[in-house]
Amino acid sequence: MADDGAAPAAMPLRLMPVVAAALIDGEGRVLLQRRPPGKQMADLWEFPGGKIEPGETLEGALVRELAEELGIAVDAGALTPLTFASAGLGERHLLLLLYTIRDWRGTPRALEASALAWVRPAAMRALAMPPADLPLVAMLERLLQIGG
Ligand SMILES: Nc1nc2c([nH]c(=O)n2[C@H]2C[C@H](O)[C@@H](COP(=O)(O)OP(=O)(O)OP(=O)(O)O)O2)c(=O)[nH]1
Question: Where is each Nudix hydrolase domain found (predicted)?
């Protein structure tokens, strides 16, 4: 190939979109779940959510994940995009899209996680979370300081 000054062709970035939810209760606490033993990032506290399956929209994937992981029903219209994080994750690049949710039906149960906890954003700093989540926590803290 002729040297035209362009950057050398890189391996295509394997982008991995993941949708996640900050369920916010009436006291401004946010639901976290603990990743079960035996999984990648075991025992870290994360926002419920997961990967998008073929043919799904982002919102459809999040509604499905919340039903599978927590046993709750959420209307796609109740999902409010808050912010995102972009971080290297092994050979892939994680694009973690965080939505807030204040309305859902049912009581969250740990159907896949090893534990659930309702936590104020300021208290999340004391929990071990995936590195990509740290800027999301800062955004949530700001949102809940402003909005209550
Ligand atoms: N749900 C969620 N995933 C997160 C967060 N932070 C973070 O780095 N991740 C990563 C962990 C996983 O690599 C990926 C989420 O995908 P997942 O939960 O469907 O994947 P998994 O590894 O648990 O399950 P598998 O389907 O690969 O077996 O995103 C977070 O706050 N919530």
Answer: 14-141
